[in-house]
Amino acid sequence: MKIFQILFLVVLIIPFAEIYLLIQVGGIIGAFPTILLVVFTAVLGAWLLRQQGFSTFQRFQESLAQGVIPAYEMIEGPIILVGGALLLTPGFITDIIGFACLIPSLRRKIAQYVIENYLIQGGAHFQQAKAAENNVLEGEFSKEE
Known about the structure:
InterPro entries: FxsA. It is a single chain. The protein has helices at 3-29, 31-65, 71-88, 92-101, 104-120, 124-134. It is an all-alpha fold. It has one domain. Helix 1 (3-29) packs across helix 2, helix 2 (31-65) packs antiparallel against helix 3 and helix 3 (71-88) packs across helix 5 (104-120). The longest helix has 35 residues, at 31-65. The chain is elongated, with a radius of gyration of 22 Å.
């Protein structure tokens, strides 16, 4: 399956699963507590997003000040952003995924996976760029008048 087909299925299925789960939880604990729980996770997610975002940005600046490339921080930033967006989206499934994105050890593992499989070893895009680089002809040019 191609990535766009998978993304389309996720965008199509997740809202239905969220609505189903909200109805089930609302049936068990009641509508008002369910709404409070959704609002609570959104507020908690916004607070965690701010805290984790500032922490990552501070590590980013420290790495730059030491002259080290902040590779992990550059990958963790978008993960934090996605996690925060998922936490602000009403629903329990997106909240679980969002909280997982804001757990520092799990986020570090995801960043490590991305760096090792797509940046260091050179995923398909990097290998294609290297192959294109091998097809370069070098020469000299001089303009005669």
